[in-house]
Amino acid sequence: MKVAIVHDTVVDSDSLDARDVLVQADAVAGALLRLGHDVSRISCSLDLAGIQQTLQDLKVDRVFNLVESIGGQGRLIHLLPFFLDALPLPYTGAPAEAMLLTSNKTLAKRWMAAADIPTPAWIGPWPGSDGIVQGGNDNKRTWIVKSVWEHASIGLGPQSLIFDATADAVFPGLAERAASLGGACFAEAFVAGREFNLSLLAGENGPTVLPPAEIIFDGYSEAMPRIVDYRAKWDETAFEYHHTPRRFVFPPSDSDLLESLNAIALRCWHHFGLAGYARVDFRVDGNGNPFVLEINANPCIAPDAGFAAALEYAGLSFDDAVRRILTDAC
User: Fold this and answer.
1) What is the pTM of this model?
2) Is the backbone peptide bond immediately before 125 cis, with ω within 30 degrees of 0?
């Protein structure tokens, strides 16, 4: 089969989080070649006519979609799937509609709330809302300000937390923060507690939930927020980068919680119409109540990322995962 890996356009001056897509493309290309496919690579831009011509010239059968942003804009992540639908040409991962719904974090939270999937209360987005709390009350609490569209913890750090505040105090400040968060942001009720990632992989009999991973905030002081921020993901010189390992082994006392996380992850897959692979990120409060933070419809599949770690712990090879993702393309 002729498979084109389509990914973000990357230049040498781009940040580590942007250049990571090339690591993913290398890994996927290697797996596809070992599986016997004819592989090409295309950098995605706003020149859709040029991309269409390249796909036709290469006589591509399927696209392996690794696009996370176009022109540096995460809000355009769904553009390629919609474009491929129009050709039409099969592609891996979530359908266009699901990519749009999950990539806009506040839109995803509205969909989760409508299906009674637990997600923290929120304010926003800015621009585009009146600042009323959604999915909860307006009691004073700690909030965390996030980008609506950008992923990879872009813009996330200790400065993202706002303590002991109501919506009236939080919402006016979103306008000032939006520029550093991709142009649109929102505030989410901060869930103090544990953090989990559950990866899912398509299969012949439906999705498989891979072993749950918990992020451990090792050696964090009381003053340090227990969040997986940009430094924890990308800054190799940072304390946070070296002190947020993941674990896959849990005591029997966590069995009910893990079953609940597994069930909610599957509900997210079916409710949003996901395909290929995905990751659902959770926080669990001090009473053991899980909340979905976000649904990542095209999580990082670099060899050092959480998805690959979950595959390894499950005893699945990366090549087999790529095969399953490609088979599920539509």
Assistant:
1) 0.95
2) yes
